[in-house]
Amino acid sequence: MSDNNPGSQGNSPYGQQNQPQYGQNQPQYGQNAPQYGHNAPQYGEQTPTAYGQQQGQSPYGQQGGNNYPGQQGYQGQVTENPGRTLGIVGFILAILIAPVGLIISIVAFVKSRRAKMGNGFALAGIIIGILFTIGLAVLIIGFIALIPAFTELAELCQGVPSGTQVEFQGTTTTCP
Question: What distance in Å separates the CA atoms of residue 93 and residue 132, rounded to the nearest whole number?
Fold first, then answer.
């Protein structure tokens, strides 16, 4: 005869078959109790846990209390952006020496991107470096375009005393 009372020892609807009653098969007070100070780990030792593993070590060989494979625990420190200092240097050089600052800013930006971090100084250095490099290129091209005019003026003034006025491309200019 089966009793449907969940607390009985027979077949129960909750799957608790032949479970001992509360208080049965438990050691009496003072029996098999661990002694204070015995088998306690010394300072710096790891205490063994179930299945012979050390405390703080996962069954997958990772350190820390994280028992999930493929995951790492929080290290507690923020990682430094590898391109931050180079980004600042690139930003400053983009203002002073545009092409060099542009290259250094690009390198800093790529380093930061590989670390999955942002780098505002490197991005600003790239933008300023591009603009200043374009401006420098326009100035150089303009100066190169004016070189033939300067050589023509120098030929007109060659043999004439300094301060003499000559006609150059429809305007009157003074020779140096």
Answer: 11
In this structure, the number of other CB atoms found within 10 A of the CB of residue 98 comes to 21
| Residue located via tokens 């005393």 | 161
For the stretch 110-166, pLDDT in tens is: 999 999 999 999 999 999 999 999 999 999 999 999 999 889 888 888 888 888 888
Contact between residue 176 and residue 165 where contact means Cβ atoms under 8 Å apart: no
Residue 172 bridge partners (DSSP): 167
Q: What is the DSSP string of the chain?
A: -----TTSSS--TTS-TTPPPTTTT-PPTTSSPPPTTTTPPPTTPPPB-GGGPBTTB-TTS-BSS--STT-----SSPPPPTTHHHHHHHHHHHHHSHHHHHHHHHHHHHHHHHTT---HHHHHHHHHHHHHHHHHHHHHHHHHHHHHHHHHHHHHTTTSPTT-EEEETTEEEE--
Quote the tokens at residue 66. 């994280």
Task: Give pTM, 2 decimals.
Answer: 0.49
Burial 100-127 (b: 16+ CB within 10 A, else e): ebbbbbbebbebbeeeeeebebbbbbbe
